[in-house]
Specification:
two-stranded antiparallel ribbon, 3 domains, 40% helix, alpha/beta, 10 helices, 266 residues
């Protein structure tokens, strides 16, 4: 007997169906409404209809169009995060699961492959969500970029796996804040030198961050992996921060991942 569970959402009293959530999630993953429609086997107008129905329920836009494609608004991101969370909870046979952010995504994909952990699942989100995944026993290992979040994760075992510097692109006092990486550490640096600034917007999209005309911080590792060179207003070592793995029990899988990632010498 094959039993599966799917969940819809009720937003402001209005039901958002599994198919509508799938449409928004696929746009998030592809960064393109046209690509999302193609992947789902539907027309672009039908996908637009699904997105409009979600926005009607949410009472706010869930997507934002940029020169680089479509990105989620904060409301859209919250809806997708909850949809993915419920999807994982409904998974009755959860595979070994690793959580990380886009900062370490490429690294973890390489490490999991190198460690020969077959059928592993890699969840990519921000530190706060990844810690929640650990607390709800939906993940086995999480890689945390922002060391300040470790004060909220003291129930787990911890292992520093490396360090990263951050690039500070200075285009004036107006900032766009990236949703990933040790952003709080970076802005604490600005506070320490008494620099006046305002955070005008936030983004989940690296392309939107790089294409903005605002100042920002981004982990040097993300740029190196993409062969990008940006001039930093300060030495990235001044914004150096720890990358930490958190976990409950050091299973053979976890031990192999920790050993493999340390060999990469972040």
């Amino acid at each position: 007997m094959d039993i599966s569970v799917q969940s819809s959402q009720v937003i402001n009293g209005k039901t958002v169906t599994v198919r509508q959530l799938e449409a928004l999630t696929t746009v998030s993953e592809t960064g393109s409404q046209t690509s999302a429609a193609r992947n789902l086997g539907i027309s672009v107008p039908v996908l637009h209809k699904y997105i409009s129905q979600i926005e009607e329920a949410a009472g706010a836009p869930v997507l934002k169009t940029t020169p680089a494609g479509s990105v989620l608004t904060p409301e859209g991101r919250r809806i997708v995060d909850i949809a993915k969370s419920m999807e994982h909870r409904c998974d009755q046979e959860r595979p070994f699961t690793v959580c990380c952010s886009p900062v370490t995504e490429d690294l973890m994909m390489s490490v999991v492959s190198f460690a020969k952990i077959h059928n592993a699942r890699i969840i990519v989100s921000d530190d706060e969500y990844n810690i929640r995944m650990m607390r709800e026993d939906r993940a086995d290992l999480a890689i945390i970029d922002d060391p300040l979040y470790l004060f909220d994760a003291e129930e787990f075992q911890m292992d520093e796996i490396g360090y990263m510097g951050m690039v500070y692109v200075d285009k004036g006092p107006s900032f766009i804040r990236y949703k990933y990486g040790a952003q709080r550490v970076a802005f604490m640096y600005l506070d320490s030198i008494h620099k006046k600034y305002t955070v005008e917007s936030e983004t989940f999209s690296l392309s939107e961050l790089l294409g903005s005309n605002k100042s920002f911080f981004v982990d040097e590792f993300m740029l190196t992996r993409r062969n990008l060179r940006l001039t930093s207003a300060v030495d990235p070592k001044m914004l150096r921060h720890a990358i930490t793995a958190i976990y409950r029990d050091e299973s053979p899988h976890i031990a192999r991942i920790l050993k493999a990632v340390k060999l990469r010498k972040l």
